Amino acid sequence: MYSHLRRIVSLTFVLVFCISHPIQAQRSLIESDILMVPRINVAGSGAFELLFRIELNDEYQFVLEQIFDAAQGASVSGSYDSISQTLELDQIELESGEVYAATLGLVSQSPEIVFNLKEVELVYRTLPARPGIRPLTTSGIPHTQIGVEPVEAVNSELFRRVYSLPEVEQQVAVSSLPGSWGLWLSDNINVVQPDAVIGGREFAHIHPDGSLHAALEFERANDAVHAQWAVMHPWAGDSLWEGFVLLYTPQSTEELDSIFQLIVDSYNFVTGQNIQAADYP
């Protein structure tokens, strides 16, 4: 694939464009009908950054306009399978904030390298910034918020929503503060990230003050911390607990929407499902 891509690039693009448009995104990004892929791995050839022009005729087509060596340390955004001639993109962020996983299939190598959209799946939506300042938390174990009280109506709604998720049972938390409730997965659903589970089949728990501990995919945990919805657990950072966070107590319905989205993200991460928070209002 690499030799074909280099040949096409030399005919269609100038080096100046490559230099003036470095791709620095941590995930693939679509802006103004351009798809930027920071890093794909090609077996036997290395890692590359890609730039596609998106065209819509009867279906979406992705026309390769630029390829160059991936920057050192760029996060992996996908891979190319030369046997199936498919490009798997793990996370593509739209300008709307939605993040998708997609599979592109190669349909043409001449005169341009063109991929068609074969499959697409919503991964999650990016988070709005949390209003106000971060709550204080302890730095050790037990890991808790300091000085935050739950809003009764919001807390009741939190419980209603989380225990409406498929195969999630309410049980006393395995390892938490007295009065905490675990989000326990029944035996009817698979656990694909057993190392991220708190204990038994508990993937999250709710503390008496309405805050939660939950296991997230590492990048999503960073999103939550950056948007000020969460703080990393003191044990986060090792290979088993790298995305373990404390989610702050929601103080309004609007805040609950974002917290619930993160709980659904945790559920999907641990179970391998792809349910949508909007389907559990």
Rough shape? elongated
CATH topology (level 3) name of the largest domain: Aspartate Aminotransferase, domain 1
Class of the largest domain in CATH? Alpha Beta
The radius of gyration computed from the alpha-carbon positions, rounded to a whole number of angstroms, is 22 Å
How large is the share of residues in beta strands? 35-45%
List key phrases describing it.
disordered N terminus, 8-stranded mixed β-sheet, 281 residues, alpha+beta, 16 strands, 6-stranded antiparallel β-sheet, Aspartate Aminotransferase, domain 1
Structure in words:
The protein is α+β, with helices and mostly antiparallel strands and 281 residues long. It folds into two domains: 2-125, no CATH class; 136-279, Aspartate Aminotransferase, domain 1 (Alpha-Beta Complex), CATH 3.90.1150. It is 20% helix and 35% strand. It contains five helices and 16 strands. The chain has helices at 2-12, 15-20, 152-162, 218-226, 253-271, and strands at 28-31, 34-42, 46-56, 60-69, 78-81, 86-93, 98-108, 114-125, 136-137, 145-146, 168-172, 181-185, 202-206, 212-215, 230-232, 244-247. The longest helix is centred in the last third of the chain and has 19 residues, at 253-271. It starts with a helix and ends in a 10-residue tail after the last helix. The model is unreliable at 1-25 (pLDDT under 50).
Please provide a brief summary of the model.
Helix content is 20%, strand content 35%.
Strand-helix topology:
Blueprint: H1 2-12, H2 15-20, E1 28-31, E2 34-42, E3 46-56, E4 60-69, E5 78-81, E6 86-93, E7 98-108, E8 114-125, E9 136-137, E10 145-146, H3 152-162, E11 168-172, E12 181-185, E13 202-206, E14 212-215, H4 218-226, E15 230-232, E16 244-247, H5 253-271
Parallel strand pairs: 1-6, 2-5
Antiparallel strand pairs: 1-2, 2-3, 3-4, 4-8, 5-6, 6-7, 7-8, 9-10, 11-12, 12-13, 13-14, 14-16, 15-16
